[in-house]
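RECORD TYPE: inverse folding
INPUT: structure tokens
STRUCTURE:
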């Protein structure tokens, strides 16, 4: 049984684990994202060394923020890890280990994780929209990633969906929702209820309900645009907010207002793997790379 190390690099935490060739995670942990390049390298190298003491590792998959050229490893933008902007990640990781390392954009990895072990495993064509601080996405066509000519396909967050042309990042993300609800409740963001409590409270608070409904309307514009462009079999919604059932009812309400929705309609489902999706997708790519080179 071949084993792989999967890393999911985020701006706040770096999640990692050992995953077997069938997608079963044997162990998992995380650490705070280092604040400079040297610390990033040292911590990453130490984690790999610790795993190799316990397991025979065949390869490493890394889910990484930003625009990643998966052929050359160059990261034009490295998301919150701006100290790695412009770095060649293949070269960086090859200096830290003699194991083969595969690097891919985090939203793409999440989509591939769902394709392998999650909500996308029964579909060859689907779009994954991740709702968090911003809006990310991955596009799977014929069972494989569509990356685009500049490796930026799936940047759904830049779609203009607001009444004045505001992008999805600004008004349809989880951060956008919290800001809108904060204004409606006249509370600071630190005082705001979260998750399920927020959606329960909308039933008795007209101002909060209006804020959430408007946010859902903005999100529906983005979802409708993505469906009309890519004609997927299904749309998967990721991020912590995807667990709220009322989101899907609200999306359905507003999507029905679009003239061509009945012709374009596809299921909209929550992702299944949560934070595990990114490192699973990264390992799937590492596994594919090893099988091709064998």
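DESIGNED SEQUENCE:
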């Amino acid at each position: 049984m071949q084993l792989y190390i999967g890393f999911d690099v985020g701006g706040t935490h770096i999640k990692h684990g050992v995953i077997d060739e069938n997608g079963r995670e044997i162990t998992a942990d995380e650490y705070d994202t280092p604040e400079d390049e040297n610390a990033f390298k040292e911590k990453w190298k130490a984690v790999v060394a610790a795993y190799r003491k316990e397991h025979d590792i065949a390869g490493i998959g890394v889910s990484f923020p930003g625009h990643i050229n998966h052929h050359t490893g160059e990261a034009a933008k490295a998301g919150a890890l701006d100290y790695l902007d412009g770095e060649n990640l293949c070269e960086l990781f090859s200096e830290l280990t003699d194991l083969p390392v595969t690097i891919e954009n985090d939203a793409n990895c999440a989509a591939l994780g769902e394709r392998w072990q999650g909500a996308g495993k029964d579909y060859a064509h689907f779009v994954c929209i991740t709702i968090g601080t911003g809006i990310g996405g991955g596009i799977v066509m014929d069972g494989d990633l569509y990356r685009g000519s500049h490796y930026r396909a799936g940047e759904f967050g830049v779609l203009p969906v607001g009444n004045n042309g505001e992008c999805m990042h600004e008004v349809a993300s989880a951060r956008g929702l919290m800001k809108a609800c904060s204004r409606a409740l006249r509370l600071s963001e630190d005082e705001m209820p979260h998750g399920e409590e927020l959606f329960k409270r909308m039933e008795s608070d007209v101002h909060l309900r209006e804020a959430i409904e408007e946010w859902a309307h903005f999100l529906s514009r983005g979802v409708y645009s993505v469906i009309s462009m890519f004609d997927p079999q299904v749309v998967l919604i990721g991020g912590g907010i995807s667990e709220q059932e009322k989101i899907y009812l609200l999306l359905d309400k507003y999507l029905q207002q679009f003239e061509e929705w009945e012709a374009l309609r596809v299921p909209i489902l929550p992702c299944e793997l949560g934070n595990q999706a990114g490192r699973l997708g990264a390992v799937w790519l590492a596994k594919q790379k090893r099988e091709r080179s064998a």
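NOTES: The chain is about 40% helix and 20% strand.
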